[in-house]
Amino acid sequence: xxxxxxxxxxxxxxxxxxxxxxxxxxxxxxxxxxxxxxxxxxxxxxxxxxxxxxxxxxxxxxxxxxxxxxxxxxxxxxxxxxxxxxxxxxxxxxxxxxxxxxxxxxxxxxxxxxxxxxxxxxxxxxxxxxxxxxxxxxxxxxxxxxxxxxxxxxxxxxxxxxxxxxxxxxxxxxxxxxxxxxxxxxxxxxxxxxxxxxxxxxxxxxxxxxxxxxxxxxxxxxxxxxxxxxxxxxxxxxxxxxxxxxxxxxxxxxxxxxxxxxxxxxxxxxxxxxxxxxxxxxxxxxxxxxxxxxxxxxxxxxxxxxxxxxxxxxxxxxxxxxxxxxxxxxxxxxxxxxxxxxxxxxxxxxxxxxxxxxxxxxxxxxxxxxxxxxxxxxxxxxxxxxxxxxxxxxxxxxxxxxxxxxxxxxx
Length: 411
Fold this sequence. Notes:
nine-stranded mixed sheet, Rossmann fold, four-stranded antiparallel sheet, alpha/beta
């Protein structure tokens, strides 16, 4: 870790950052930039504070527990005070967590050691054994960075040369050669790499690419993207099949504008994608699309490496219940206007995955199709488990996604 200023200055900043995230539930990056601006963090401290804040949020529940155990109390500042007194050392924090939780019950131990709400651990233990769940949560806590080569603008070889020129360590995916995993540096900064700034390589997780691969395996020229912004998946689909014609919907006007800019940057002709600012739970069409994508709004619990603040945002189960209801309404509507639908969420909880699709099947609205994807099946215990998919961070090296391919029932 870089040289630190006086501990009390660091403690003040981390307390302001944590308090802001607890109050607003916004992403870590947005919170960090706002608090840095508000308190005039100098440039030489920016990277250090970013990393320290990242780990405070990533291990928030564990720090809270340790602070209470060691007599610091239960107030918000107690966790930061404990972290201060171990020298803001992440390695020391992990060692202490491992040592002091070893005699706890399995649910409490995994919840504290890897810093997830207890209900998450309790619910996941219904679908995997403790040893595998521990590997799963540990891997989900580890930073991962993937790039998709945008072959509409460049070649894989050119992006490889660009990365080597910048001394970036990487691996090319063994199945999807246009996907590249960044191995080093750990705190990768895409804004410093020319081929990324130009849009030749696109920051996009491997799990997200499997969603598009599922959509690509379905027949049909006309595509509906029901929750399209910021547009990475539809631009990816166009890269694989430039004959598509797409309606791209998003409920946010500002995000729809971002979508338009990204499509232009990724070299996609605007006449191939019609952008609609609309609510996909209510929109209607006068024809049926051959295939649709419902990359639904969700808790983001599978995206912890990119945004540790989701752990705080989902500390109560009600957040997931809200999204589960929304996801069902999206599918209920879109299935009326599509022959095939790919449903995906960046969530590790079955309430947003298996249970949503089980509801759709039980309502007689669709049936899951077991297409060929190089992924493990979804969590066991549901009728739809054997024909839907999940990405597992400790196996696939990516975020935690749920993916289902549905064929709509026509009455």
